[in-house]
# Entry
Amino acid sequence: MADYETITVERLGAVALLTINRPDKLNALNNKVHEEGVAALEELKKDDTVRVLVITGSGEKSFIAGADISEFEGQTPVTQRDLFHEKTLFNSLDTFPKPVIAMVNGFCLGGGNELALACDLRVCSETARFSQPEINLGIIPGGGGTQRLTRLVGEGRAMEIILTGDMIDAKTAEAIGLVNRVYPADELEAKTMEMANKIAEKAPIALQLCKEAVKFASRSNLDEGLRREVDLFAICFSTEDKQEGVSAFLEKRKPVFRGK
# Structure
């Protein structure tokens, strides 16, 4: 794994931990974070020993406190549009083939919330705080906030969060479905890794196909979704892992999946 300036990547068995490492800036997203994050994901995508990715922010104060606003100065509509049409960390996470868990440890604001939304699962500490405050700068979310948030929590909730720019606490985030689990701050990492390792024991190809099918569900109509599901279901029957899973079930033992 290459050396990076703004992120760190650790391999913890079958789980990779990617940390946004700009604690002096509350881990705000700048162009370098996007560039290095995309590069790291490309490398992790090809590493068959990594089955699950956890992404977090350095320190206890902040997951990601949004975009680095200092980089907005002097930007034009064309430069901003070009930047967000290029490979961003948001879209690279959304299309990453392996399960991704956002471990939210503090402020999760603006681009930080959009990054969490691009992940498959979100878990947070009781002290986590979420918002899309772009309206307070006279702009709108540009990293998928209007789209992914609406699909996750519904139009009414998304409208309230985006139009007011208000911050919501962890309990509210869990109640509206923005996060999957809330844990005490001192248990967050252990509980997240417990979830990640549980998922990592599953069949890798089936995990990838599950992810593809579920994401397709919110981006298509029911008939198209059902057809895609059947196709992906059938593909599973070509894998060695399917045979191992069936054999283990019949033999009453734990399966050992190899991603083949």
The longest helix spans residues 31-46. Residues 18 and 207 are 20 Å apart (CA to CA).
